[in-house]
Design a protein that fits this description.
Layout (H helix, E strand, L loop, with lengths): L16 E10 L5 E10 L13 E3 L5 E5 L7 E7 L1 E3 L8 E6 L3 E10 L9 E8 L8 E2 L7 E7 L7 E5 L4 E4 L5 E6 L8 E5 L6
Length: 203
C-alpha cells in the first residue's frame, strides 16, 4: 500500500476476491466525506506444464498431441518453432503438431482466462530424432556346417544398439552391437533378423 494521506493510492492485490475500498477525506477545515468502491480481483492463470512427448522419432507428416490444464473457460494462444499446428481452433487447450525436420523445436502457450487475465508463457523444448534406416544385413548366407566366426553386420546410426535374432547359431558374440559373430554348428535353413534401436530410442 502506497499513497496514504494522498489523493491517490497504489495497491498490489495479493489474492483474488471481492473487496471494498473505502476513502476518508478530511479537509483543512475539518469537514469529512467517505467514499467506497467495490473492487473485484480475478484469479491469475496457473497453467500446467505442457504435456506430450519431448523426444520425437521423426516421421514426416506424423502428428503429436500436446496439451495443458488451465481454468474452465480459458482460451490459449500457442506458438510453434520448428513445426506446424494442425488442430483447430487455435485457442483450445490441446493441439496436434507436425514437426518439420530433424533437430529441435519449441512449443509455447499463453492462457487467457474468461476474465481476460493473462498467464505466464509456458514453454517446452522438443528433440526431433532420426529413425534408423539400416535396411539390410551383411555377411555370408551360405556356408558349411561347423563354420565358425561368421560375422553379420548392419550399417546403423552412431550409438545404436541391436537386438539380433539368430536361430540355429551358437557361440554368439556381441549380440547388442552392429556386428555379431556366430558359429554354425547346425545344418539347415534359418531366417536371421535384427532390430536397431537408436540412442534416442527410435526404431
Amino acid at each position: 500500500l502506497a499513497g496514504v494521506d494522498a489523493d491517490s493510492v497504489f495497491l498490489v492485490w495479493d489474492s483474488a476476491g471481492t473487496f471494498v475500498l473505502t476513502t476518508f477525506e478530511v479537509t483543512v477545515n475539518g469537514c469529512t466525506d467517505t467514499l467506497s468502491d467495490t473492487i473485484v480481483v480475478y484469479d491469475s492463470p496457473e497453467t500446467s506444464e505442457i504435456f506430450g512427448d519431448s523426444s520425437i522419432c521423426f516421421i514426416p507428416n506424423d502428428s503429436t498431441l500436446y496439451y495443458v490444464f488451465g481454468f474452465q473457460g480459458s482460451s490459449y494462444t500457442w506458438f510453434i518453432s520448428g513445426g506446424t499446428i494442425l488442430s483447430t481452433p487455435p485457442d483450445n487447450d490441446s493441439i496436434l503438431v507436425i514437426w518439420d525436420s530433424l533437430g529441435s523445436g519449441t512449443i509455447r502457450v499463453i492462457e487467457t482466462t474468461s476474465n481476460n487475465c493473462i498467464g505466464d508463457t509456458i514453454a517446452k523444448s522438443i528433440s526431433i530424432n532420426e529413425i534408423p534406416s539400416a535396411d539390410s544385413i551383411h555377411g555370408d548366407f551360405e556356408m558349411c556346417q561347423y563354420s565358425k566366426g561368421e560375422n553379420y553386420s548392419m550399417n546403423g546410426l552412431p550409438g545404436s544398439f541391436y537386438l539380433w535374432n539368430l536361430p540355429g547359431a551358437s557361440n554368439i558374440l556381441d549380440d547388442s552391437s552392429s556386428v555379431v559373430t556366430v558359429d554354425w554348428n547346425t545344418a539347415g535353413n534359418f531366417l536371421i533378423s535384427a532390430v536397431e534401436i537408436s540412442s534416442a530410442n527410435c526404431t
